[in-house]
Description:
It is a single chain. It contains 17 helices and nine strands. The radius of gyration is 20 Å and the shape is globular. It folds into two domains: 19-147 and 181-230, 2-enoyl-CoA Hydratase, Chain A, domain 1 (Alpha-Beta Complex); 253-363, no CATH class. The strands form two sheets. A six-stranded mixed beta sheet has the order 1-2-3-5-7-9, with helices on both faces. A three-stranded parallel beta sheet has the order 4-6-8. Helix content is 48%, strand content 10%. It is an alpha/beta fold.
Amino acid sequence: MSSSASSSGQPQHSSDKAILAGVRNHIGHLVLNRPTGLNALDLEMVRSLQAQLDAWAEDDTVYAVVLRGAGDKAFCAGGDIRALYHSHQSGQDQHQRFFEEEYRLDLSIHTYHKPILALMDGLVLGGGLGLVQSADLRVVTERSSLGMPEVAIGYFPDVGASYFLPRLPGEVGLYLGITGTRIGAADALYCGLADWHMPSQSLARLDHMLDHLKWHINPLKDLQGVMARLGSQRLPDPPLQALRPAIDHFFGLPDIPSMLEQLQQVSVADSREWALDTVAAMHSRSPLAMAVTLELLRRGRQLSLPECFELELSLDRQWFEHGDLIEGVRALMIDKDQKPNWKYATVQAVRQEDVQRFFTPLES
């Protein structure tokens, strides 16, 4: 392990390196080390992760990889949106390179031939969720909060979300993508965004067990054996399970205006509060981003993973000029007036041809 990390894999003292890497007991440990920035990813971090994973892929002495975030607040709160905003506003191309290289990293993790154990302790949002969706062992704790909140800043769920969200049970993925709702550990296990739950206080014990693990024939089975001693694969009463009939009905409707209209009419007591909360959330989102997200996720159901990344990249290339991201970041993160002036004032104003225009470059 690098000198700035302890035997628990956590930094002992502050290092200026945004990615810490080291090997113990044939396990490559990677730590996202920007705790004050909630471990948000920038281009240099993406490149460091890619280079280290590529090196370990060729190293026969490394059997598996563990990925985590420094601190106890976040695994990774997504991409460094401010940096992308400033890149665009100053006429640079860093924002374009970021998405190209981030997607390449995510895709390479999907095809990585050594098991990856991802510790999703704390916030796991946007690019953070995309980073670990292809890990073999996705571990959550009671502190985990997962989500694809892009629509809140006038963007769409990316990093492979057009592949993994529509493959969740029923319409759960469309609900999460269109509303930007966050979920906890029980829901993450229920809908398939995580595999294991363990208490955060057991993380040190996990490291101790990994450091003393006796390897056998199959590294993935060895790691699963460790997790079976520390964690569980189900938690009682996931809220999403109770909401499934309502989610499947409303988010199976043909378009965003229909969803909002019917949600506003819910009078059944046990669904009414959820319906009104959902309406309130959707009213604060970019109408264009929600409509494009709906189309993106429905298309993604029929596409392969590489095709999904290609589609998202095609949208990225148009979105900074023609979408709502720049205005969303300005209103919510730069000026903080919380009053974004979205391109379309209402969901009814967004026409189907306005949505389809974003998808034509790839089709042609």
